[in-house]
Amino acid sequence: MGIEDFGGGQGPHADVLVVTTNDVPGFRVEQVIGEVFGLTVRSRHLGSQIGAGLKSMIGGELKGLTKTLVQTRNQAMERLVEQARSRGANAVLMFRFDVSEAADVGTEVCAYGTAAVITRV
């Protein structure tokens, strides 16, 4: 099944459809492969920590930390898709993120879901 079967798509995981739902309208789940995940832990840059500390006193978005979290989230998702692809999946169902602090030195982001093979009905 190619990307044209999903209605197009671009980017590093265009051949693997990632959805938060249990199923995909117009597609049938042919095989459930199992749980897949992508995990990464990022430490905070000293400059962004100082900036975040100052910014937290006056309020507003912590742009440096937001940028780091977006990069971390994207890396976790890329790892999830790589794992799904390597196990023969063309979809990840019930996709979720879990974010937590890692020993007060960084942020742990885990992307997880159920790898599956789907076909158009």
UniProtKB/TrEMBL annotation:
Superkingdom of the source species: Bacteria
Cited InterPro entries: UPF0145_dom_sf (IPR035439), UPF0145_YbjQ-like (IPR002765)
Q: Which HAMAP family match?
A: UPF0145 (MF_00338)
Q: Specify the species.
A: Streptomyces marianii
- Full protein name: UPF0145 protein FEF34_16410
Q: Coiled-coil stretches, from where to where?
A: none
Q: Which PANTHER family match?
A: UPF0145 PROTEIN SCO3412, UPF0145 PROTEIN YBJQ
Q: Which Pfam families match?
A: YbjQ_1
Q: Which family does it belong to?
A: Belongs to the UPF0145 family.
